[in-house]
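EI: anyone free to look at a 460-residue chain?
SC: sure, send it
EI:
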Amino acid sequence: MKKSPKGIYTLASLTEAVSKGKIETVILAFADHYGRMMGKRFEADFFIDEVGEKGTHACNYLLTTDMEMEPVGGYDFANWELGYGDFHLVPDFSTIRKLSWMSRTALIICDLEDQDTHKAVPVSPRQILKRQLHRLAETGFEAQAASELEYYTFNDTYREAWEKGYQNLEPTGWYLEDYHILQGSRMEYFTARARKHLKRSGICVENSKGEWGLGQHELNVRYAPLLDMADQHMVFKHCLKEVAEQCGLSLTFMAKPFSDRAGSSCHIHISLWKDGRNVFAGEEQFGPIRCSEIFKKFLAGCLTYAPDVLPFFAPTVNSYKRYVDGSWAPTRLAWSHDNRTAGFRVVGEGSSLRIETRIPGADVNPYLAYAGLLASGIAGLDENLAAPDVFEGDVYAAGRLPRIAYSLEEATAFYRHSEMAKASFGDDVINHYCHFYAKEYGAYRNSVSDWERRRYFERI
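SC: here you go
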């Protein structure tokens, strides 16, 4: 029998840990629109005795709020007229893990169901991804994936950053530190602690490194089955924020926190598998790589339909400020072999052959980003799409290639009218998230920025 990773529990082993006093708190949580962890904390004894497989409930307004937790009107799913009732949080017991950085605490990720019908809530991010995984399973394949997340770190606490209006924060580094061991060593009091806690919480860590920006870092975890990776992605972000809090630091996963510095990405690696074999691998020569027809069709779908699912890759108004030529973020759609200027970078060979999608920023909701990627690739398989030839050279300079949208408003309009997106996700999901993105963009459009005040206050 395969041994579970350290920190991973079954319901039986969780029950035993609770009985021995090793676990005193159980968190039931799910991802909201933004990918934030929402839920409840239970006394562990009460959870075992009274909650268990029944799960719990929460207000369904949590899938209609903005970043400030204000209810937003105009959703069909939940609104004032319907009274903002509850939905049901159903524990997925394959996700039980001890949170090493918290005292005697376990986490269980939940799926959402209608309180009355017990049908899955179709607009919940995890359900959207599970639907795409079901579609993929119908093709006979499963997916393995990995998220590479970057983030900026600061010597200010979160409270101090808030009180300073997020202005004049002190980066933890004072020169560009990409791959620098010396500068990285200065952050080991935080990074080593984060690596340790992730490992002890059932997430297999590969490495960490300094990134290109001041105080910017990257911590990489091992690939896993795709749904498990999306769950790990959410736990990863939550862990790093709480460990930063414990260290008197703050960090941000904003896609572009500073106009004059590189953005933070979430490079997504994906491959398809069947019977323990990577089906992207093959003997057909395709440019500089050897691959299968399945690989070529999946890649073609990713390229063709990236504009259709772009809001799932770039979900905030800030996301689009990351797409700057020469900034390590892609600005045009092409695939290339081991070329960091391309939106889709193909790496590895044989059983390690995979597609790296460089479009998402660190602000993605992992469930939606993976769902968008799968939907695009599945469309490539279903439609027998042909991938274009490999692009060689500087993609930034290739003006003939299609450009990534300039704004959330532009991307949402394309998503709204996409026949592929409608067929893949359904009208309820399309309408729900179009409304979400429109409200997000509207809040931005109506706000007055510091840039405007500096530019116009005196001199206009």
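EI: The mean pLDDT is 94.
SC: 👍
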